[in-house]
## 1
Amino acid sequence: MGEQKVCLGAIASPHGVRGMVRIKPFTEEPQNIGAYGPVNLADGRRFTLTVRSMAKGMVLATLDGITTREAAEELKGEQIFVDRNRLPQPEAEEIYHADLIGLEVMDPSIGVIGKITGIYDFGAGSMLEVRREKGKPVLLPFGNMSPITFETGGTERVSLNIDPIWLEDGAGDD
């Protein structure tokens, strides 16, 4: 199995006529999207990304070899990845979202809920997508609103205090 990849952003659109692209960054500091060396696309193509400027929360960047608007247009929607080992180690109270994928989620009073399959932010804060053994996947609030602990004694898991209303979907009606 290859090195774990971390998505740093997604190409939103071309910018100008010389191949520059607008990138929606997923990094804490948007301009850091180019700080970790060459980037890869999902299909394996590799580029050197150079950040040129910022505009309205988007990174304006060049990718080596992309020199026309048409070439940049073909990259629209592509996600940008780097190998996980090229990122700095997170601070003591931080964790990369990519490191949460696959971890168990549990609530001390409910027990194991399921495994994290995705992390989303629709504007009101981060949500964990959790696939349960039975029933539909659920989205659970994650971040500043929910007390979180990370347990690593044997089994790595995320422990959240979850309001049971977040788990209601008729899963027990089968």
## 2
Amino acid sequence: MRKQQSSISVSGILIRGSLITLKRKCGKPTCSCVDGEMHATPALSYSVKGKTRILTLRSSDVPSIKRALENYRIAVGELEKRALSGIRLMTLHIIKAKKKG
């Protein structure tokens, strides 16, 4: 009897990358993938120091990975808003300093 593996819990985790689908033929001469639809495997594509990496996933992990990818997008968006706010504040500070001096 095979033990059921649980899916990943990523409630507060951030993951950078893209969810992709790898398609391949298994090589068995009697498999339907020889003439028809290839086997599909979900995967996470991400880069480290300019090199693309691929992490194959279980189908049960896809919803958690999607949430973690969305968490990352939200965090980047919030950081971008804070950075732009900082630029606006610094711009106002510089303008005021120029008017005084």
